Amino acid sequence: MGYSREDYWAFVDRHATALRVRFTRSNLLFVWGFHEPALGGDYVWADPSLPEEGAVMPDVVLPAVYAPAPGKEMDFLAVLEPARERGVPVERQDLYPRGREAEWERYVRAAVERYDGDGIDDGPGGVRVRHWQVMNEPFISFAMGYLTVEEYAELTRMTARAVRAADPGARVVLGDTGTSTLAVITALGGEGVFDAVDVHYYPRDLAPVPPMLALLREALDEQGYAAAEIWMTELGTWVNQPPPPPDVPLIPLQTEADQARFLVQAMLGNRALGVSRVLWAPGLVAWSGLGLFDYMGLVTTGADGGDDAADVGRERIAYQAYRRLIAETETDVADLVGLRAGSTPALAVVELRSRADGQAFFVAWTDGASSSLELPWSAPQARVTNLVPDASGRFTESTVTATGGLLSVALDQDPYLIQPQE
């Protein structure tokens, strides 16, 4: 978007504060081959031959992520990639460090020690990384034949051992292993290797929740990982109509309202089903030159994302929806009770409880059809807010009066915030 490095990070901090973003992630910050070009040689944490914005420069990026700013509070998930060939995508090279296992563990220990914030051999900027992920999307490498499930399980064991040797309090997160997730969990069953499992979700049909969540929770419990969390560090959908990749069916046109509706439903719906962390992807601003991901940002990049070139930097309505959702439902202002009994995909009702006064409130939507929701209601009225704002970012609110201790609210596909009103 044409920013200098300083202006870019000021832009990020401003929006992170406005959206109350407290957790972020990068999947290209710790690629082994960039940091240890010659096995057994010195580690390179800031390569002066690369632009300062280079994603593989943790000594530059992490201090900016953790730099203090008014209202800012940030934590970070670092992804460890065992790829060694520079100039080759990480998914398109052999990834298991066969014969170099000790070197891999040494690299992981060095990375964790440098950014663990314990005051010993630390990098610059007062960084404290507490979460480490074993690859971003190993399912791609499985499908392409560059890594097997068994190799990934062993890589996870090695990585977890090295992470905890350097920082016993750090947490280890599995990458997105796709349809092989249950096999990976079974291979690591009962070993206490990881603390969370990651799921990436980009549906083509705007269904807000992946159907495999219940099976995943069941498998974790059965394999001795009842305390392990489910994370969703990539969740997203597009605006406009991205060009399809080769041999892929036409990608349907979607509006900004479609994106905002999906964002609210998916972020809240997945939390209600037990997902502990949900991160919008690709993040605040769409990427450039990566097809579908160019169209997903909450802030427009102009023509790269199918918008007018003059729209660079405009906040899409999903930005405003996200901001309102977090303001009303974030964990420091409300406790998420869960899906209300009787909820179905056709009529989802998420119950929350205000931390300020203990009163219950709800967010509800249908799968598209108009419907009516009845709730027991002790307050005389309710304020009902459509969480999909209009094109100007304004939210439509109405007041509904309870009758005989019951509240009846008309619903449709948009998510509605239903709060007691005296």
Question: Rg, please?
Answer: 23 Å
The unreliable regions are: none
Strand percentage: 15-25%
Helix content: 25-40%
Structural class designation: alpha/beta
**Strands of the biggest beta sheet: in what spatial order?**
1-2-3-4-5-6-7
What's the total helix number?
Answer: 10
Task: Average the pLDDT over all residues and give the rounded result.
Answer: 93
Calculate the terminal CA-CA distance, rounded to whole Å: 47 Å
Strand-and-helix sequence, N→C? Answer: HEHHEHEHHEHEHEHEHEEEEEEEE
Largest sheet: 7 strands, parallel
Topology, number of strands: 15
Shape: globular
What does it look like?
The chain has 422 residues and is of the alpha/beta class. The radius of gyration is 23 Å and the shape is globular. The strands form three sheets. Strands 1-2-3-4-5-6-7 form a seven-stranded parallel beta sheet. Helix 4 (101-114) packs across helix 6 (149-166), helix 6 crosses helix 7 and helix 9 runs parallel beside helix 10. The relative contact order is 0.08. It contains ten helices and 15 strands. It starts with a helix and ends with a strand.
